[in-house]
Amino acid sequence: xxxxxxxxxxxxxxEQRERxxxxxxxxxxxxxxxxxxxxxxxxLDPEAACAVLDRVQGLVLSGGExxxxxxxxxxxxxxxxxxxxxxxAVELALIAGAERRRLPLLAICRGIQIxxxxxxxxxxxxxxxxxxxxxxxxxxxxxxxxxPAPSSDSRPGARAARDRVGGGRCDRGGRTPRQRWPMDARGxxxxxxxxxxxxxxxxxxxAHVSLAFPSPEWVGAYGQAINASDGYRVASLEWTHGPVAxxxxxxxxxxxxxPVGIWLDLDxxxxxxxxxxxxxEADQAPFVISADYAHWKRVxxxxxxxxxxxxxxxxxLKGSLAIVVRFVKSAEQLVEAATTVPTRFLDE
Length: 348
Description:
Strand content: 15-25%
Order of helices and strands: EEEHEHEHEHEHHEEHHEEEHEHHEHHE
CATH architecture of the largest domain: 3-Layer(aba) Sandwich
């Protein structure tokens, strides 16, 4: 019996009609490898899309648009290409679902990028300006050729489409994953071919890897968690009061010599950017909440509510308390999102 694999897809508009689309090269390669591809439309509710994973033996993430920078805590680059927030949401859900089910996963072009983001990584949005080099990553002639597409799973059987999957062109080029601070990666490595790759943390379902709080990787993952939270989105639709900065006070004995600011560009239920900033940059936000490391740890562990912490002066607020109190549900959902980030505390 032939095995079935789920394949993510893009969408396009032809003659004013929106269509779900997949490059035929994917279908030909998968069929040639003895597999039956089933397309997962990017228009589905993310949770509903995951239902297909109960009936397939693998997942293929195809090429396409750029990943929305807010997913990895970055601001849009002037040369950012087309994005599709709905597709991002569906594919992130599929990746998490595949990890929970221990399904083999093959990522190609954009697929590698969204996988890297799901694992807590970041991306260069435009290689030509951000990481110039001798290789033309947007060379369309090269993209016509077949290229090896490594699996993100090294277990037996993980090469879902054997040697032929990945032929054909990527739909967009010129982007590569990047990482900044070192990451704890016990056992989970991003695909890097036979020469290896940089370590990446496992998905939450793996429960093996934690991100140091408050590293840039932790902050990026936190931004993703906020955007993945339906509870936060609903509770914060009326938030139009600007960014919020969370400041971790210095604690040299654990390696925090200076204040660390966490900038959250929040607007109408969306975190448009999440990044580490200096104290001076954090002070520019209309709302700044500062606290010692131990108190932030209690907040993340849900041992101290943010509003209660402000009232007890364990957290210091600069900004309108009246507005903050109005959005107590939003504050609770921000904490809830933080609890979903696998966290390693520096004082433990």
